[in-house]
Amino acid sequence: MSTATTTRNAEAASDLLRRLRGPNNEGILALILIGLVVVTSIANPTFFSVPTMFAVLRNSIVPLIFALGVLIVIISGGIDVSFPAIAVFAAYSTVRAAGDIVDPGLVGAFAFALALGALLGLLNGVVIARFRLPTLIVTLGSQGIFVGVLLTYVGSRYVAELPGSLAALSKTNLLEVSSDGRNAFLHVMIVPAVLMCLFVSWLLRRTMFGRGVYAIGGDVEAARRAGFPVVRIQLFIYVLVGMMAATAGVIYMIMGRSASPRDMAGSELDIIAAVVLGGASIFGGRGSVLGTVLGVLVIQVIGSSLILAGVPSAWQRAAVGGLLLVGVGVQAVAARRSARHRRVVRTEEAVA
Amino acid sequence: MVQPEQADARQPVLAVRDITKTYGGVRALSDVSLELMPGEVHCLAGENGCGKSTLIKIISGAERPDRGEIVIDGVAHPAMDPAGAIRSGIQVIYQDFSLFPNLTVAENITLTSAVADGKRLYSAAALRPAADRIVAELGLDLDLDADVERLTVADRQLTAICRALVHEARVIIMDEPTTALTHSEVARLFALVERLRDRGVALVFVSHKLDEVLEVSQRVTILRSGRHVVTAAAGELSPAAIAHHMTGREINEERVVSALPIDAPTVLDVRELNLAGAFEDVTFSLRRGEILGVTGLLGSGRTEIAEALFGITRPDSGTVHVDGAPLTGHRIEDAVRAGIGYVPEDRLTQGLFLEKSIADNIIAGSLDRHRSRSRLLDRARVRSTIQSLFERLKVKAPNTRAVVRSLSGGNAQRVVIAKWLATQPKVLMLNGPTVGVDVGSKAEILEILRNEAERGMGVIVISDDAPELVSCCHRVLIVRRGRIVHELAGDDVTVSRIQDRMAA
Fold first, then answer.
1. In a 3-state reduction of DSSP, which class is residue B462?
2. What's the pLDDT tens digit per position in B91-143?
């Protein structure tokens, strides 16, 4: 009798733990994030300040939008390395068109960039969905093509001054806070980033498209048999990723106040690392927006704290790499433990 | 609006007419027709590769036929699409269940019908009551919030059944529904089938376990090599006649066991093996040339014993001797080195490299045995081992370069067995050796085991298929709640004795 109660208590406790941990270890990641902030703040009290927080958020905006797109692709069981190429293609072309031909205004510029991003994403999607080719290879190939076409036909000139409609946003801040005699600014582009987080979260959790993404990532054949329009969903995934990349690209150039066709190259691995660190399974079928947000923040906080600590930037990459291995390792260990747990439960049931 | 209840009872709810389907020049189906009446259980039987699966895929809309039509409620369609088939009330429970491992049971149950309804938005809370209702209606004990990948095979199947029923299904096709179930679970499934039949649902059973299916079926249709052989009332066909129609030859399911020489030495000796929560005090021995059956309900510990002997799990205490030498170490490598082989239950994921050729699979476990003096692979010996096993086990494939994924269940099993035979084991344990294998291949696989035992190997067959154990085992151990509770030998090995002792 008493053993039964103890077991029940233990079960309730482990249930609570499991809920706190979240389906993709979001809880653990949140703890790591808090731990990082605490440790860095103790080591260097200037870290724990509003300006630093705003700077971390500011640096997270572009990676976060990229990461949301990558999250959708990874959940669907694919991987995309062409998004920086799509971003720079769409954003640089928009800047050049606005500067050389006619400034279409802020809305017009974004619309143009989104259309370009959608088109390039569609190209990826068509090849992947129709011919069922491996996503990594397709996007590896297409990113080369996108950059090549951009440099050849659109140009390779560095644009130091953005067209007026975009430049106007460069210095717009959402919040200004003065603390300890320093002024802290929160860039206005945090707004679209937050909106996109909410949108993607809604899309993944509350739409049949979102369920289709998880279903395809879980078992593509089962998704087909269940009647999910797999080809259409995959096309839409890559169109969406293209559009999100284009948005991130334009925001990057607005915040950087310049445009170069060589921007953002090489950022893909950091983004993928953030998403995987955020609990998305590299094999597909698992991942959440919350986890991705935490993953991006952890990587940014590590970057900032290492800068504050005066660690050479080369070591930052090593830290990100190490963290990625830890993230994947935690997933693997958890999976193995649950397999063992299942075996014991099964036999206990049989013996009972 | 036409009342379905008042429709003519003799009008088939589903009919396929003159279906022909060709895959890359190979004819999978030629002019096959089938009619399904409301409230009937129809058994679709045939050997692996006879076209059953193709026919199911065509009915469910996963494949388009080259010729022929699918008639639903008198309306002819040249082909179906998956969502359309589900909307018409056709549900398929695939052998692999086609569930989403990363989603919860509740989501798996309700998602398909949400897709078929053409929903755009999704709300787990709104769909949940439907899942609750179906689980309650069937009186099942399923954790709706668990991820499917954490479920046992039997629970996965129950999830798949719930998914088929949650939508108003009028035709349910079950591909090998009893494969993963134990005796009592099968009984529960059949009780369920009876209730569905009363509701006017037509069921198609695809199965190899004929004796079971004949219990619930009214009619039987048999396919052979993509052609329709016979459709008859279940009562008119004896199991032997069905086996004959399926294979085109006579199948012997009689008990055939060799006489063991009295002085046959012990090859495997297990003493007081314990693993907390799995099994206790397991003691038995196996002689050279002997085939030993180990049976029990799912979860009784029968699989856990084999896994402990093979080093997958580490027993808490006990000793194991192979050929008189103690088994030291409890890793898989140690077991293999000592001469123990294990063909797992789930051979597709645990026993084979599906995308690799038959040759690569056969040799995969014994590369170390095929080195030349320079430590490099001895190509000629590798080739001769592969070829001789390929022929000895009569693997049906054009050649050893064929990819394993393209093989039928029976042939895939032969390749796994060949892989172990290449390592020349002293003891070979097989878990569910004929699960998902058709009657013809089944008899042949049992024959292979008999032959290999005659060559001096000790064989352990873990199975809940009593006729199979009777057919080939010298002795049968019955495991209940982690203990060996009975040992049957000689004439005591009968189907009824095994089933009684298993369930008691």
1. strand
2. 888 877 889 999 999 999 999 888 888 888 888 888 889 899 888 877 778 88
A255 is a domain residue: yes
Token pair of B388, please?
């001789």
> What pLDDT band is residue A346 in, cutting at 50, 70 and 90?
very low
Taking the Cβ of residue A183 and every Cβ of chain B, the question of whether any pair is shorter than 8 Å is answered with no
- Considering chain A, what is the average pLDDT of its residues? 85
Q: Determine the structural domain holding residue A248 and report its residue range.
A: 25-280+287-351
- The Cα–Cα gap between B415 and A75 comes to 35
Kindly list the residues from chain B whose CB atom is less than 8 angstroms away from the CB atom of residue A205.
Answer: 122
pLDDT digits (tens, 9 = 90+) for B279-336: 999 999 999 999 999 998 777 888 889 999 998 888 889 999 999 888 887 788 889 8
- pLDDT one-digit tens code per residue, B9-45: 568 889 999 999 887 667 788 899 999 998 899 988 8
Residue B405 DSSP symbol? G
B151 lies in the same domain as B222: yes
Spatial distance between the Cα atoms of B405 and A332, rounded to a whole number of angstroms? 27
Q: Which residues of B touch A221 (CB under 8 A)?
A: 98
How many CA atoms are closer than 13 Å to the CA of B5, on its beta-carbon side?
2
Domain shared by B384 and B420, yes or no: yes
Give the least confident one: B145-159, B257-271, B347-361: B347-361
Residues B236 and B272 in one domain: no
Yes or no, beta carbons of A218 and B100 under 8 Å apart: yes
Decide if A257 is inside a domain: yes
Domain boundary among B219, B247, B275: B247
Q: Which two tokens stand for residue B496?
A: 């009824």
Residue B6 within any structural domain of the chain: no
Q: Do A347 and B115 touch (CB under 8 A)?
A: no
How far apart CA B351 and CA B334 sit, in angstroms, is 18
A80 part of a folded domain: yes
Q: Report if residue A20 sits inside a domain.
A: no
The answer to whether residues B47 and B140 belong to one domain is yes
- ipTM comes to 0.81
Q: Are strands B317-322 and B266-275 parallel, antiparallel or unpaired?
A: antiparallel
CB-based contact A23:A286 (threshold 8 Å): yes
Distance of alpha carbon B1 from alpha carbon B298, whole angstroms: 48
Query: Of chain B residues 290-309, which have a CB less than 8 A from chain A?
Result: 297-301, 304
Q: What is the pLDDT of residue A313?
A: 75
Q: How far apart are CA A249 and CA B287, in angstroms?
A: 72
Residues B206 and B292 in one domain: no
Q: Say if B258 falls within a structural domain.
A: no
Angle between helices A268-277 and A289-308 (to 10 degrees): 120
Shared domain for B215 and B281, answered yes or no, is no
Residue B233, strand partner residues: B219
Number of domains in chain B: 2
Cβ contact, residue pair A208, B122, below 8 Å: yes
At B381, list the tokens.
Answer: 């010996």
Last residue of a domain, one of B218, B247, B276: B247
Domain range holding B64? 13-247
Question: A223 and B100 in contact by Cβ < 8 A?
Answer: yes
User: How many domains are contained in chain A?
Assistant: 1
B265 has pLDDT over 50: yes
Both B189 and B148 in one domain: the answer is yes
CA distance A339 to B374: 42
Q: Looking at residue B450, which CATH number applies to its domain?
A: 3.40.50.300
| Spatial distance between the Cα atoms of A321 and A318, rounded to a whole number of angstroms | 5
- Closest residue by Cα to residue B324 from B475, B449, B426: B426
Comparing alpha-carbon positions, the chain A residue that sits nearest to B87 is A227
Q: Look at B277 and A347 and tell me if their CB atoms are within 8 Å.
A: yes
Both B188 and B98 in one domain: the answer is yes
Distance from CA of B118 to the nearest CA of A (A): 9
Verify whether the Cβ–Cβ distance A349 to B277 is below 8 Å: no
